[in-house]
Structure to design on (344 residues):
């Protein structure tokens, strides 16, 4: 299988090493969270009961049993000359959370906690540990800092790093395999995908900071931030996708058009709520040629956008983006129904 750009960064291995690993382990590798360190949703369930309930109502959960039986799946696999969707690494990396045990790589669930927050083996039991006899309220600042640092070092992707967390979404919701689209008939991207509108619907799970009393919508300031971060990610991952385009057909044409629209919208946002961070993003994006057979330039620009995007997300607040409210989609555009917590 082709070596693909990987939104999780830490799984990037040089191609030669990857081939050696694949030969030694007798299986193909998948991108995404490290299958050897994936515990599966059960490894989060003992503490995150409400998040699991919310997840069970989403397509990300239901797809585990539903996808393999869909007629479109069989048609697509036939056109591509592939076997079962749960056995093909090319499909598995976006359609399932994968686990490796006893040298066998298999889907553990649909798209689950670790698909977005990172493989949990080395942090699941420790990231929420306040210390013996200590509560969240009595924990010292130093203990908290050390706890968060341990989790980050062990590969946890935390909500505070919204750019990295959102990368997982765009790594799956924009296709980056030309043949799967042009030959298999797969959609090139989820139409209208944005981090704000697709997170705030059925995927929303914000109960932790309300002490499990509610699952509230993001504040207006946070909504603006999610929207703009989503557009930066769409431009970054759009460039990465178009880098795979070699023929003038659905894959390259649709993704180039969509990515061009995203960068134009960012330019409009920069005019309404200027920041030095977004200025750099817009000029990098506009200077890049969205054309076929242009992988080197597109990948280089995408890497630059990733680093600029992280500093945008860390430094520019939702308050600074107050001027863009007319562009921010409202709740009628949320994808799916949010999980309702508490009494009906
Ligand atoms: C042993 C209990 C326990 C397990 C198991 C557990 N968590 Fe947590 N988790 C917590 C606690 C407690 C907190 C709140 C920590 C705090 O107050 O800073 C938390 C917080 C989080 C946060 C928010 C962190 C932040 O910075 O806001 C995420 C995301 C998270 N957990 C994901 C997971 C995932 C994914 C799994 C499974 C791989 C998991 N947790 C397993 C107890 C647990
Ligand atoms: C880059 C990630 C990615 C890869 C690789 C991928 N898919 Fe998908 N697939 C998705 C997403 C995301 C959706 C949901 C599309 C949407 O929102 O419209 C989807 C939807 C589908 C659908 C539903 C019909 C449709 O097109 O909307 C089928 C069938 C499907 N995929 C089969 C496959 C098969 C078979 C493979 C392997 C050859 C594969 N997918 C590889 C991400 C991927
Ligand atoms: C599709 C990707 C995705 C999946 C799957 C996912 N999360 Fe999250 N999670 C996010 C995003 C994105 C945020 C932060 C959103 C924001 O900033 O508004 C988040 C936030 C959180 C938080 C912090 C909420 C708060 O109130 O501060 C916790 C805890 C958490 N996730 C745990 C989990 C657990 C446990 C699971 C599995 C049941 C899970 N997540 C599945 C993407 C995901
Ligand atoms: C590992 C790949 C993967 C990741 C990561 C991922 N998704 Fe998905 N998502 C999918 C696939 C595949 C489907 C289609 C499932 C199906 O139709 O059976 C889907 C479906 C959805 C749906 C339901 C769409 C519908 O048609 O109703 C929403 C909403 C969604 N994703 C939002 C998100 C958001 C927001 C994030 C990041 C916070 C995210 N996804 C991260 C692969 C992924």
């Amino acid at each position: 299988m082709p070596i693909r750009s990987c939104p999780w960064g830490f799984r990037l291995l040089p191609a030669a090493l990857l081939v050696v690993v694949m030969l030694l382990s007798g299986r193909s590798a998948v991108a995404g969270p490290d299958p050897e360190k994936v515990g599966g949703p059960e490894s989060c369930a003992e503490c995150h009961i409400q998040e699991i309930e919310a997840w069970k109502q989403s397509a990300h959960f239901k797809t585990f049993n539903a996808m393999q039986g869909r007629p479109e799946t069989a048609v697509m696999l036939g056109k591509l000359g592939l076997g079962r969707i749960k056995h093909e690494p090319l499909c598995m990396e976006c359609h399932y959370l994968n686990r490796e045990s006893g040298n066998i790589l298999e889907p553990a669930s649909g798209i689950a906690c670790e698909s977005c927050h990172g493989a949990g083996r080395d942090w699941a039991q420790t990231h929420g540990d306040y210390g013996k006899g200590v509560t969240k309220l009595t924990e010292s600042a130093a203990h908290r800092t050390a706890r968060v640092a341990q989790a980050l070092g062990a590969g946890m992707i935390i909500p505070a790093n919204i750019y990295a967390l959102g990368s997982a979404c765009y790594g799956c919701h924009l296709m980056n395999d030309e043949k799967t689209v042009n030959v298999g008939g797969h959609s090139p991207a989820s139409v209208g995908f944005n981090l704000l509108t697709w997170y705030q619907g059925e995927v929303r799970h914000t109960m932790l900071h309300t002490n499990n009393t509610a699952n509230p919508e993001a504040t207006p300031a946070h909504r603006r931030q999610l929207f703009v971060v989503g557009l930066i990610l769409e431009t970054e991952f759009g460039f990465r996708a178009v880098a795979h385009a070699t023929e003038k057909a659905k894959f390259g044409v649709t993704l180039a058009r969509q990515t061009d629209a995203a960068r134009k919208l960012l330019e409009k946002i920069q005019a309404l709520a200027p920041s030095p961070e977004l200025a750099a993003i817009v000029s990098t994006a506009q200077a890049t040629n969205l054309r076929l057979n242009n992988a080197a330039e597109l990948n280089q620009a995408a890497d630059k956008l990733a680093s600029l995007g992280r500093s945008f997300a860390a430094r520019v607040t939702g308050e600074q983006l107050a001027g863009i409210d007319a562009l921010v989609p409202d709740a009628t555009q949320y994808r799916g129904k949010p999980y309702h917590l508490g009494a009906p």
